[in-house]
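Title: Prediction job returns without error message
Component: structure pipeline
Severity: low
Priority: P3
Assignee: unassigned

Description:
Job completed but the reporter wants confirmation the result is attached to the right record. Sequence as submitted:
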Amino acid sequence: MSTSLSDPVGAGPVPEDGGGGAGTWAEAWLWSMRHRLAAELEEAVPGPELAARLGGLEPADMDDAALIEAVAAWERLASWVAAGQARAIAQLASRPRALGGAFVADQVAACLSTTGAVAENKVALALAAERVPAVGDALARGEIDVRRATVLTDELRRLPDAAAQDVALSVLPGARTCTAPQLRSRLRRMELLRDPDGAAARHADARGQRRVELQPVADSMAWLAAYLPADDALAVHTTLTALAGEAAPDDSRSLDERRADALVDVATRWLDAGAHPDGTPLATRQGRRPHLAVTASAATLLGLSHEPADLQGYGPIPPDMARRIASRATWEPLLVAVRSGEPLARGTRTYAPTRSLRDAVGLRDRTCRFPGCRMPAARCDIDHVTPFDPVPGVDEPSVDEPGVEQTRVGNLQALCRHHHRAKTHGGWSPTRREDGVTVWRSPTGQTYRRLPEHEPPMNPPRPPPPDGVIIDLHPPPF
């Protein structure tokens, strides 16, 4: 049984019929007398005092009712903490000169050792709570949790400030008893009723942000998510369901499995052909047409080692999967350093890296080298860690001219366009150490490390292990 914070002496609401069932004053009062700790925790407001009280409790010494209220109290405290963090982030965002303006989320990601997406969500919540104070205040009081606050700010950001505040005040009293999907549905309905013209314009803008995203998960699997207009998304799903069709008598796949296989069949035929549906060739990037790449040792491919391989853009995969891919792929040898496992390639004194250098850097870095960023290296710029300084008077010095090979594997890194801009214009400065660790100095002087993605060979034998191998499912264009 639970009592209401707004009721006198925690007695709970009185039924309209005045009956003596559950929820009467007498029953609620007796419950609070039997479970004094639970009643006290239920009424406690989040803050330093509640944190100290909860920190001093031993769960093993508490009855069930007190444990339930302790769970709820910790949740209110977590909301209060999140609100405090949001206020600090909002203040940080108000100082663009110190942080390079658009790169506040990068500072947050680096200091928390988290991904850019997580940091951007924290910044978005902070700025939205600042814009709609009712949401930030409710979060600080523990009346809503971070999940509900995020739903509120996500939905309200599309409304003008005054309308957003009005809608927030109208839904907050019941937000605590709504699930996140229920709250989101209620907000969207209110948006359509209150501002139909604005809703239509916002839908048109949102269509311009439609996209498909990949999220690696465990067991060598991944989620593929598409952000689409509702009618298009339903059309795609209906098409896949139709292609899945009725199962043959000897087909043991479920409908979900057949639908997933239909999606793969429809999409990969054009990758296999290297062309668009109209027959024009697929565009190249970094000198190669779109393809899959797996890096594995020769011993793994020959079945002599159980060392994992690496699927570029995903991460480690089991050797059986690597061998299955290799059975229908193009192989290219790649030299690696025996001690570090880092790919090797010959440097050049010209500004633009050769294709072998781009391949080596991409396979070594695998993703953007900024702390927390997971943009695949194949979609990144290949950037000079120490800016290229050409021979005076010569734009592209030849290999015959004296000078240091500035364009070499050790002075190159993969950076997504956003973090390339952060380095060039946002005040961030990287240094790459000999052990492969990249040390970034922020505009405010803090330093953050990005560990290398590649790993040294496992238990390297003597003599040195065989060269690594690049496996391309689709050969590069001639």
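Comment from assignee: result matches the submitted record. The mean pLDDT is 80.
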